Amino acid sequence: MSTIKEKLRQINQEIADKAAPLEAAGASAILEAFPGETRDVFALDPVIKIGDYEISPCFDYHIRVLALAEHPVYKMIIKGDESTEWVPILGDGHFLAWMFTLPVRELKELIEQHGVNDCRQLAEAKFEFMQPRAVMLICDAVINQINSSMKARLSYQGATDQDEKGKAQAKSPPLSAPLTASGG
Fold first, then answer.
1. Is residue 36 situated within a structural domain?
2. pLDDT, tens digit, 9 for 90 and up, residues 88-117
3. Which of 13, 47, 57, 119 is the most buried (most CB within 10 A)?
4. Number of domains in the chain
5. Residue 135 contacts residue 126 (beta carbons within 8 Å)
């Protein structure tokens, strides 16, 4: 006659034997990338190479500096201000290119040592003799990096209301909205 412990051990083993093929299938499935936006939602953004320059992925610190500098890219992409116009050359273009061609820790040290305004002068010194098209290519890569890092956040499109000026305002996701993305 078997004891209760032996019976439980037997039941657990039966469950494990039945679950083994499902676990193997799950382990295999997790290795396969699914199509669509959720496939890369947690992937790290790679460095983009433009000529001799490496464009860093976007980090939170980049967003903080863009906000401190009141940069047009911050106003357009992060705040969603559609009225902001910007051509990625000269001062703001040089500053954006400069920010993302430095390692983020070095950027932080320079901002802390010199402040945003003096760093704008460092950016000018680095890029003022570069052809505008080259600066624009770097800035395009930077915009891609920012958009890529914001992809999961920007994919939510809630219903909109209008503010007092008639401009559409996106609503925040409801608290009941799932915190994870669905591949369906």
1. no
2. 778 888 999 999 999 989 999 999 999 988
3. 119
4. 1
5. no
